[in-house]
Each structure stands twice: as C-alpha cells, then as structure tokens.
Design goal:
Number of strands: 16
Number of helices: 7
Structural class: alpha+beta
Order of helices and strands: HHHEEEEEEEEEEHHEEHEEHEE
Strand content: 25-35%
C-alpha cells in the first residue's frame, strides 16, 4: 500500500467498503429467504382434476320431428293448407261477401291510383251533412272503415255489425265527377244566384249557394275537371275545368272553360280532397278566393257569401 499515493489508497478503500456492503446485503437477503421459504410451500394437496367426458355427436332424430311434421321443405310433395286465424269460421266467410249498404253514405266520386292505398273516394254522409275525401283504411264518421276503392264503387266494413258492404256512384246519364270524362246530363238551375260586383269579384246569398252544395253528387254532375300536371316537375298543380253545363253554378261562377284552378283561399288544389275542401269552404265560410290560370295569365276570383 505504501507504493500507492494517498488518493489511490482512498479510492481502493472506498471500493472495498462498497464490496463489503454488497456482500452483507446478499447475506441478509439469503438468510431472509431461508427463514420464509417454508411459508411459501403449500400445506395441502392440489385438487383432483375431473376426468374428461367424451362429447357425443349423436343427435336424436326426434329433434327434427317438428320440421318433418310441418313439411316446411315439402319433402312429401304435398301443398299445405293456407294459414288462417283461429277465430275464422264459416260465418266470417259469409260476412266477407259484400252486400249493398243501407248506411247514409253517398259515393260522390273516386280517384283510383295504381297503388290501392293511395286511392281516394269523395263521400257525403247525409245524416251528418258532412262531405269529404277518404283513403283506404280511413273511418267514415264512426260508421264504417274503408276496405277498398274501385272506380265507381266503395267497399267498407260496417262498424256496427262487422259486415262487408259497398255503395256505388249514381251512374245515371253518365254523370261527371273529378275522375270521369263523359258529358253530364243537363243541369236544372234557376239562374242569377251569383252577382258580379267588380272585376272578378262576386257575391252570392248563402241560401242560394246551399241549394247546390247540399247535394254535392248532383253538383259534380254539372262539370268535368281533370288534374293538370306541371310540365317541368310532372306533379299535379291544380284542376282544369274542361267543361260544364249551360246554366250550372259553374257557369254562374263566371270561370271560363279551360281555366286551371290552382288554389282556394291560398291552399293548393292538388287532389280530390283539396277540391272537396274548396266546396266545404264555400259552404261553411264567409267567402272563398280562387287562384286560377286563365288564357296564360294568373288571376284571382273572389266570392263573398252573404
């Protein structure tokens, strides 16, 4: 050690001290592990494993008996009977034969669509003095539920007895409605009920107007109106008054033949229901304002009901 300098001796002493500490730490750790080693050993035998059970891939044929009995794949070549509700019986079948209805329902017109659910029927309920347009599935003032709409015929379920009934339009003299194109029978009017008081402005007494509106079926026999489609969009933009009888209320309204009726009190007239509402507004309101297109120009016809 005398050969080393003092700095070298100090460095050797420091490393020796570190080595002693490390040796002491390993000794303490080893003694600690020896002391606690017995505590880590299990004091019970491990549980026995259950023997593996072999999986059986055999399937009982009885599991397929519902499929065989129902013949869903038609393996026997037999066509099963159609499924029917349990409550169906012979009486319900008889009720499905439509009979002429005695309900106070009058069919004014029909508009038959390629999609049956979009077909529309114009109906008047005389007992309640109500008229309007209805689609398939709608109820008619608590009296009936519409089952089908065909040209000139309305089928519905009577809500009182559940019977399937029908009503037909009055085909006499080939009457004209919003969905027909033949000429109508001559109208019978007294004339002079509507008075002109200004430019496209008229007045009419309610009592005179009700003579026509109380019988909408006869009213719609007096004119022929067809839906008009916009040449750009192809959608219905109104009804064109193609023709009407001489002396009818349509002539007294002084709307020229060929006029396109677009709106009634600002509401578009694009279907039969809107057309029926136009008559209801005249019947129940104090006036009606029609937006029309005549001779290529847009005009407004105002009717004051007194």
């Amino acid at each position: 050690m005398s050969k080393f300098t003092e700095a070298q001796r100090n460095r050797i002493t420091m490393w020796a001290l570190y080595g002693l500490l490390i040796f002491f730490a390993f000794t303490v750790a080893d003694l600690t592990i020896i002391y606690y080693r017995d505590h880590f050993l299990p004091d019970q035998a491990p549980p026995k494993k259950e023997p593996k059970t072999s999986v059986s891939y055999r399937i009982d044929r009885g599991m397929y008996s519902p499929i065989i009995s129902r013949n869903i794949f038609n393996s026997s070549g037999l066509i099963p009977d159609p499924l029917r509700p349990k409550e169906e019986n012979e009486n319900s079948k008889k009720n499905d034969v439509p009979v002429l209805s005695s309900l106070p329902i009058t069919l004014i017109g029909t508009l038959v669509h390629s999609n049956p659910e979009k077909s529309v029927a114009a109906i008047e309920v005389k007992s309640k003095n109500i008229s309007g347009s209805y689609t398939v599935g709608a109820e008619i003032e608590g009296l009936a539920k519409i089952e089908a709409i065909q040209r000139g015929v309305l089928y519905f379920r009577n809500l009182n007895n559940g019977a399937l009934e029908y009503v037909e339009m009055n085909q006499g003299n080939n009457k004209v409605s919003f969905d027909q194109v033949k000429a109508a029978a001559p109208a019978q009017t007294t004339g002079g009920e509507i008075q002109k008081v200004g430019n496209n402005t008229f007045k009419i007494k309610r009592s005179d107007l009700n003579k026509y509106l109380n019988d909408l079926s006869s009213l719609l026999m007096q004119a022929r109106a067809v839906p008009n489609r916009d040449p750009n969009t192809g959608e219905i933009n109104g009804y064109r008054l193609v023709d009407y009888q001489a002396g009818s209320i349509f002539e007294q309204l002084q709307i020229p033949r060929g006029t396109l009726i677009k709106t009634a009190n600002g509401e578009p007239v694009t279907n039969v229901q809107a057309a029926m509402e136009m008559f209801n507004k005249m019947k129940n309101g104090n006036g009606v304002e029609l937006g029309v297109e005549s001779n290529g120009t847009n005009q407004t016809f105002k009717y004051d009901i007194q």
